[in-house]
Inverse folding.
């Protein structure tokens, strides 16, 4: 009884859809004198037409004919026609049953095709959703693969799906798949990595014995780094479904690639913002204005390269002395910038020691002791030059000490410029250093230029280094200028020398020029 | 820049060539991290084929020297060409390192 109801329910829509055609057939039979035309399942009428016979017809003998209607070779229901024997034969009724069978078969095929087209439209819509979702960038990898897995299931109408990725760390998402162990996931990934093409494997879960999984490689940045799996019961996937599965796997890979690219761009932007902030902080650690010291013309400048670096300079003026410091931490980037900030602070506090006058040698020796352990840990060093001028217009004493710093160019009036060598290695190299004090009689017109290796190592497109000889030549050519003009000339010459080549290191320069005493030169005091 | 290593009894000689600068220093720094240990801490760096050296490269040599000394050994330098020698002299790193004219003198210095 149940089965006939079920059959009836699947047949009835077909019969109803063809009601007009069936009615036409019934009326044709009626014109031949038929009184009843109907389709029956057991004795239940599915559709029937009954006409009251005329007097004339009633006189004729009416017979009930039956023929089975087959659909796809299976007996489905019965055609009953009741009419006069003279015009109706069993053969005609059999033909009519075959015709109705054909009609319903066509209707059934038609319906299947329509359903298929609608299903394809649905899948295309899901595919469209998948592509559209790919444009959203503000998601985590986990969100993305969950979304991709759900979309993959909808596109393929599979029974279950999973996506496993092994990027920096493994991530997976399942949808109607049941628990997926890390070991199984890795095993699936290894299989697709080995074959690098879609293939079917038995489902390892014991709960779903007999099922198979369609595995597809997910390529991210050119390598198979993930696996997309679909449960495919009874090999139901058509070639078209498999093609769609490949498209989904490809889309998943592209989506992840875009996301990684976006993330790295974002990270780079953040990093460059951080670098810019570091650069600004570093610039604020440098003197914000040139100091005023009687008898001296002073100018210090830093011309930063794109990257933060380790150059620094400082001026400390008190009642008796003017101390200037130039240093360069080896290496580049934030680590050099951090060491620079630390070293500058220690040098400055040592030089500003209030209870005794710290000479340049004291400042360097003491600072080396203070920073040695830190430099030892980070395995870098800093070159440092300290000059100290006694503020006394009647004297011309400049004391200098140098821990590995170059270039330091001294231009005594009427003598060619020359390099002053350090007499101790840079700070942080040896546990104890002795950067001895050297006294220079800084006469009017004498110039001292303390620069960093960003000048001497400026490089042109032919891989030539600017070098010390050119620096000495430049010092001789510009020594008659003011401190600021000398700084400007050095910077311009370095830029011109580099040409198209970008400045790869900071350039720092401090120029100290002894002015003529006020009685000799009206513009003598700075 | 090429890095060639010669392992002698008790001494490892590293021969560098070309420019030794901030771009090349990381590979030497990595070598130092990986290879200098209590059993390999007597190193000679042959710079005879190096035409240019910058402060990052010098810092890398200082790092190697410190690492060797921590393990009771040392890092010697040999074969400085004029331009490189000037840098060592100006920065007074010639006071921090033991520097030899030739490779054999450096090797025999241990």
């Amino acid at each position: 009884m149940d089965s006939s109801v079920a059959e009836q329910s699947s047949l009835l829509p077909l019969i109803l859809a063809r009601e007009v055609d069936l009615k036409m057939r019934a009326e044709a039979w009626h014109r031949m004198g038929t009184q009843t035309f109907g389709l029956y399942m057991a004795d239940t009428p599915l559709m029937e037409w009954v006409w009251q016979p005329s007097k004339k017809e009633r006189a004729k003998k009416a017979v009930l004919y039956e023929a089975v209607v087959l659909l796809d070779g299976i007996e489905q229901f019965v055609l009953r026609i009741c009419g006069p024997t003279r015009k109706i034969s069993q053969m005609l009724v059999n033909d009519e049953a075959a015709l109705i069978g054909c009609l319903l078969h066509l209707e059934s095929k038609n319906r299947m095709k329509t359903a298929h087209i609608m299903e394809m439209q649905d899948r295309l819509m899901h595919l469209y959703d998948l592509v559209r979702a790919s444009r959203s960038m503000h998601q985590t990898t986990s969100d993305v693969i969950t979304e991709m897995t759900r979309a993959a299931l909808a596109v393929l109408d599979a029974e279950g799906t999973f996506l496993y990725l092994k990027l920096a760390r493994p991530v997976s998402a399942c949808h109607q798949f049941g628990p997926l162990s890390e070991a199984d996931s890795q095993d699936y990934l290894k299989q697709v990595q080995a074959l690098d093409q879609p293939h079917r494997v038995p489902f390892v879960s014991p709960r779903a014995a007999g099922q198979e999984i369609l595995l597809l490689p997910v390529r991210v940045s050119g390598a198979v780094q993930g696996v997309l799996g679909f449960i495919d019961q009874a090999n139901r996937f058509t070639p078209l479904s498999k093609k769609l599965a490949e498209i989904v796997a490809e889309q998943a890979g592209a989506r992840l690639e875009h996301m990684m690219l976006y993330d790295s761009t974002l990270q780079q932007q953040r990093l460059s913002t951080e670098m810019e902030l570091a650069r600004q902080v570093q610039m604020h650690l440098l003197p914000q204005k040139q100091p005023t010291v009687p008898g001296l013309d002073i100018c210090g400048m830093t011309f930063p390269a794109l990257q933060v670096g380790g150059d620094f300079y400082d001026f400390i003026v008190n009642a008796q002395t003017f101390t200037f410091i130039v240093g360069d931490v080896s290496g580049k980037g934030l680590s050099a910038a951090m060491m620079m900030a630390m070293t500058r602070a220690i040098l400055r506090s040592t030089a500003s020691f209030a209870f005794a006058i710290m000479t340049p040698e004291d400042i360097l020796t003491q600072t080396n002791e203070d920073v040695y352990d830190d430099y030892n840990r980070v395995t870098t060093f800093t070159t440092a030059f300290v000059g100290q001028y006694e503020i006394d217009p009647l004297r011309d004493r400049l004391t200098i000490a140098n821990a590995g710093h170059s270039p330091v160019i001294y231009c005594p009036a009427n003598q060619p410029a020359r390099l002053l060598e350090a007499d101790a290695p840079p700070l942080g190299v040896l546990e104890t250093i002795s950067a001895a004090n050297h006294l220079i009689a800084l006469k009017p017109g004498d110039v001292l230029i303390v620069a960093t290796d960003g000048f001497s190592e400026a490089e042109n497109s032919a891989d030539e280094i600017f070098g010390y000889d050119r620096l000495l030549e430049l010092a001789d050519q510009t020594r008659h200028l003011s401190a600021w003009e000398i700084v400007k000339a050095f910077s311009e010459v370095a830029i011109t020398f580099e040409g198209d080549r970008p400045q790869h290191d900071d350039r720092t320069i401090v120029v100290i020029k002894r002015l003529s005493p006020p009685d000799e030169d009206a513009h003598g005091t700075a | 820049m090429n890095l060639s290593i010669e392992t002698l009894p008790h001494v490892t000689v590293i021969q560098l060539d070309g420019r030794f600068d901030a771009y090349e220093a990381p590979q030497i720094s990595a070598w130092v991290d990986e290879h200098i240990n209590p059993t390999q801490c007597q190193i000679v760096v042959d710079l005879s084929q190096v035409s240019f050296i910058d402060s990052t490269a010098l810092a890398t040599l200082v790092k190697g020297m410190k690492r060797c000394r921590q393990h009771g050994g040392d890092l010697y330098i040999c074969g400085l060409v004029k331009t490189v020698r000037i840098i060592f002299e100006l920065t007074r790193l010639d006071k921090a390192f033991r520097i030899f004219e030739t490779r054999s003198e450096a090797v025999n210095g241990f």
